[in-house]
Amino acid sequence: MQEQSRTTLKDITKRIGWTKVKKLLGSELGVTAIGLNPFIERLTELSEHDESRDIGGMINAVWHNLMLSGTRLVKLYKLEEQSLLQIQSSLATQVQDQSIFFHTYPLPLSKEQLLSADTDLHYAETVSSIVNERQIETTIVTAKAYYTEVIELDSAHLSDAGLELRANGGEIKCKTREVTQCFNTIMVMPSQGVLALTIDLSVLPRAESERQQFIVEQFVRSVTGVNLPVPLDLFSLVQEMYEQLDGRVSQVAFLTSDGNVSALKLKPGQNCLRNDSYHHGGETASPILTKYKLGKIWDLANTPSNPLSVELILPGKRAMIDKPNSHLYDAIVDRCTTIEQLSFVIDKMLFSLEKIRERRAANQAHE
Hints:
By secondary structure, this protein is α+β, with helices and mostly antiparallel strands.
């Protein structure tokens, strides 16, 4: 196995975690290991003894799928057909520039290369996909981004006083500025009349994604000439999707009938918060629990015995309950490894929004 394949596999693991890498590649290749480095060693041995297995190609395919999926902040826009066609045709004329980002594309730049790169957004490619018999045109745009990481200091960097503090149970951490390469996307879904802008959060924290959101929206305006409307408000989905019985509730934050704020997350060994005795008891005793944040997981089949889970997080805030001008425009889609999985979660949101719209229209008709 070539060195580039090893580097790419490490990049994949950094973005989706070792457990998912083991499910995606280990199960398909019949290779098991207790960690990434032993896994790489076994893949190297396999490639040397079985040249018919294109392990490097498989790793590259997983990486390319991640450029379209991974963990993403998603904003949805409802547009007229003409605006979508204008965006689609304008993006189709774009070409890669001569920047350093395309010296290794589709593979990411090394940290050393990123440090010398600019912070502009660069067009990479447009990928056509057919998902559930519907066409999706996904444009990948890439940029570098800085973020803050908190790390625990190594003992070699501590003074005697620091070593003594750590020996007594203390923690010594520091903040560092790191750099990553984001693969953001612009998804045109003509049959649904929807444009989705997604920001790559596989490494970049959501709290530091504001610049990426800005430059992607700016790119759409400048390249297509279309001024985007306000994104779809997703806050109503919190209660709607909680009540839908598909999937598993992974986290929920709510306001109780006595005005207290409470939040729950799945613990190890738990399957769904709907079955949590504390939460279920609270729902029974005080059914008016106003929910403002929701996490929901769907288990999608990789193989019948090896499901892959994807998660939607609607990160609402307490203030959104009382303030009529508060809106939730962002959703976080986590754990996806293909565009089909990302599209699955987006479809869930759009379906639920349509159900809410139909119900409101029916209620108005009866007034």
